[in-house]
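Q: Is it fine to ask for two folds in a single conversation?
A: Yes, each is treated on its own. Send the first.
Q: Here.
A: Result:
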Amino acid sequence: MRDDVALSFDGAEPFRGQRPRAPAGQMAGGQGPMGRNGASVLPFMPFDLGAPSSGNVAPPSGRLSYGGGSGNGFGAFEDELPLLEELGINIPQIMRRTITVLNPFRINPDLHEDADLSGPIIFCVLFGVCQLLAGKLHFGVILGWTTLASLFLYMVFNLLAGKNGSLDLYRCVSLVGYCLIPMVLFSALSIFVPGRGLVKLIMAAVTVLWCTRSCTSLMAVLVPHADEHKVLVAYPCGLIYVAFSLLVVF
């Protein structure tokens, strides 16, 4: 077919003549605009990043890091905080609080000024692991009873204190969880004590008194006006830890 003949499919006469010219400033074949001297205005960017660019675009300098921007690889992560600190888990603080709860005659309430849930969750899991070693699957029961016990203690104390009640649920869960440490030790020791004899019952009674004294002493110091109702607060605390001891004995 001749180049100067364009076919028409709508019944019109075929167009004869020269090809339409490209607009001024555009290269043939649709390659982009042209300058006055015939050179392309758009710069050419090669695929090889190491090769120099033919336009005014500067090659990338440095290496991109995962932290964003240019840097030396993983240098951006050097200023990041440790994962435990970002999650709010302070292991040394939890160890100091554990030691002060294990001493029933000398409890340092200053360590429990800031309530947290990391320690109670750890001790609930340890309690469940000890029960699992004894052949009892009580993970859900322990977590559920800890939540209900905290709600129960929260309601009882605020009802006793009336307008002066200032115990929040977050601190209540923290106190109940940390004072569960003697119960965890009792659960671990009961693995080596067979049966439900007198020895295990005596251990359960001592553990309940230990947990009750620790929880009541901490509440009396940390919560305002709790010292006025110390004996009344000890009763619900004792009921809470009696329920946990029944899990270990039976």
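Q: Second one now.
A: Result:
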Amino acid sequence: MGMKRWYLYLITALLGLVILGYLIVRWNSPINFADIWSRDNHVTNTQRDVGKMPEGNAVPKEVLKLRHEQRLRPLTEREEGTKVQDLPDGIYGFSMCSVVALRAKRGNTFSLEIHKHDGIVYYVGYASDEHIEKYLTRQKNFHILTSPHSTKEASSLFEIPVEFVSKCEERPVGDGYIFDLFVTTIPELQT
């Protein structure tokens, strides 16, 4: 019986030291352990957001330049949800493939930027030089894999009129999407 009591005293003493150590650190340290434990979810969310377009001032310079050159303004919240054909020229917003209506902010979605100028609605995104070359050389029946932001595989910014795209598919990649734009023919330019 003496050995069992000894283990009980040892466990009680160790538990007391752990509690005492916690209290000393808690009182003398500005670290809030409750906040650290609750941040586990924030770390997970950050990992889920890898590959998604960041909010705020993280818009790439080339996108800002394109918006400026085309004299585009952001879609207002009041215009949000309006059919694209009913929106004025000179705006940009965000949408998935359908481009029925635009959102004012990209938000947490992995959507493409959409520009409307000169009466034409454009998908704006990043693709490989090889895919863009097919578009620029007016080939028929090709795919352009498009990303909302620059990646190693899709590093060149481009825009293509929505009407040139016969089919757009949203394909899940990791925690986001890549957009497969299928072009059958490019209408001839009218001169």
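Q: Anything structural to flag on that second result?
A: Two points. The first strand starts at residue 73 and ends at 74. The first helix runs from residue 2 to 28.
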